[in-house]
Amino acid sequence: MWRRPSCKNFLSPVSQPALVVAQAYVNYDLFRQGEVVKKGKIFVISAASGSGKTTLVRGLLKECKNLVVSKSYTTRALRANEKNRRDYIFVSGKVFAAARKKKAFLEWAKVFGNYYGTPADFVEKKLKTGKSVVLVIDVQGAAKVKKAAPGAVLIFIMPPSLRELENRLRKRKSDRSAQIKLRLKTARAEIAQAKRYDYIVINDNLSRAQRQLKEIVDSECGTEG
Ligand code: 5GP
Q1: Which of 49, 71, 116 for mutating ligand 1's site (highest number of atoms within 8 Å of CB)?
Q2: Ligand 1 binding pocket includes 50 (Cβ within 6 Å)
Q3: Is the CB of 137 under 6 A from ligand 1?
Q4: Buried (b) or exposed (e) across 61-93, using 16+ Cβ within 10 A?
């Protein structure tokens, strides 16, 4: 029901020129051995900030025991409600650059002025043991992963409207006004990329969105529960 729907008439106006919000790179070497992607599946989940992806992903992990989430490295500063190694692996620019040089990232990107990277060894190990891995990454990272691993399933979480997205960002109180403006501007560009995803889930009702997300994972993995 949600597979590759047209989002032409969703949220107006979404047809702004795409912003270059991130430079993303992927470590293609990881996918040279077909074996790596055959076992578990990669699920990429993207959403504009404030779309409720964190809550949805947490719920999904509780329900699907064969799924694990990859924790990204980031150079962003810790927010008040965050914990190192629980939300991200927070590192300095120097540590991030060294990891990048060693090709430790499956893909990496610069988003809102900070670097983010998906640890390649974590993803590889989990896939090899038959686990499916969820990557919660931005639109450019998602495109790179899909190119390198066409079997990856791309899911975009859509906010009910831009107004609602703004309300949620303001309620979060974790960003300054300028950051909120930037996040909203970026959201328009990200939403315009949603048509490239395999699935779009509209988060206007949390329990429905949660159910749809689980149905997607079950149908892609050929599993239930
Ligand atoms: P935030 O700082 O608000 O948690 O995340 C900002 C953006 O960076 C979000 O779109 C998030 O999905 C994305 N992001 C987080 N980790 C990664 C990563 O490892 N790679 C890429 N490409 N994007 C990421």
Answers
A1: 116
A2: no
A3: yes
A4: eeebeebbbbebbbbbeeeeeeeeeeebbbbee
Sign of CA dihedral 171, 73, 60, 182: positive
Q: What is the pTM of this model?
A: 0.83
The pairing of beta strand 114-119 with beta strand 73-74: antiparallel
pLDDT digit string, tens, across residues 116-143: 999 999 999 999 999 999 999 999 999 9
Q: Tell me, using a 6 A CB cutoff, whether residue 27 lines ligand 1.
A: no
H-helix or E-strand spanning residue 115? strand 114-119
Please say whether the beta carbons of 46 and 157 come within 8 A.
yes
Q: What domains are defined for the chain?
A: 17-221 (3.40.50.300)
Instruction: Say how many C-beta atoms besides its own lie within 10 A of residue 141's C-beta.
Output: 27
